[in-house]
């Protein structure tokens, strides 16, 4: 595929879609629906809904273009052996990781709350990466998967902007990946954190990466396909 500069902050982003993957971070029921981990932390989970439509549009575009799509999920083994006590022992016992909620045990793999929301459900051939931390590189084989496919550029979407998206982008940046964060396909429980989190990525000449929108990336993807 050809290279098309995408309007982005802090400056236009040169992209080779053949070396690009879409990474959708933690669009799970535990974060987006009532009764899960996000709600247990005291958050208004409806604040994350704005990211669903753009994630879906980007997902469909990536699938149609044959891009590698990776879905991540934050969660722990049922025995919690991979959950640091420092992470578990926070908040009231009935709202902690591993406690029983309306969608099963909170932030535990295999439970209904751990699933990716129906609108963005992975399809056959799309790796689903289970991670125990905020960053998608920590204690996972993400770096290996990307290297094996010759990927050096990540389109990053998902939730939440300043927590798992940010941590993943920082990890990716240190490993040499170029990250383009899709502002409308990310969301936070705190609108001000979303806004400033995106600014932090693009500030200082793109200290962690670039920020653009789903519309801009899809337009570039269409143009690249037409030129191919
Ligand atoms: N609490 C919060 O904003 N986020 C998380 O705990 N995990 C992710 O961001 N996925």
Care to count the β-strands? 8
Main pleated sheet: 6 strands, parallel
Spatial extent as radius of gyration: 17 Å
Fraction of residues in helices?
25-40%
Specify the number of helices. Answer: 8
Q: Give the overall shape, derived from the CA principal axes.
A: globular
Report the sheet-strand fraction: 15-25%
Can you offer a commentary on this structure?
A hairpin with a 2-residue loop joins strand 3 (100-101) and strand 4 (104-105). This protein has a 6-stranded parallel sheet, sandwiched between helices. Helix content is 34%, strand content 18%. The longest helix is centred in the last third of the chain and has 16 residues, at 191-206. The chain is α/β, with parallel strands linked by helices. The protein is globular, with a radius of gyration of 17 Å. 47% of the residues are buried. The chain is built from 8 helices and 8 strands, in the order βαααβαβββαβαβαβα. It binds tricarbonodiimidic diamide. Tricarbonodiimidic diamide binds at residues 26, 31, 41, 74, 134, 159-160, 163-164, 189.
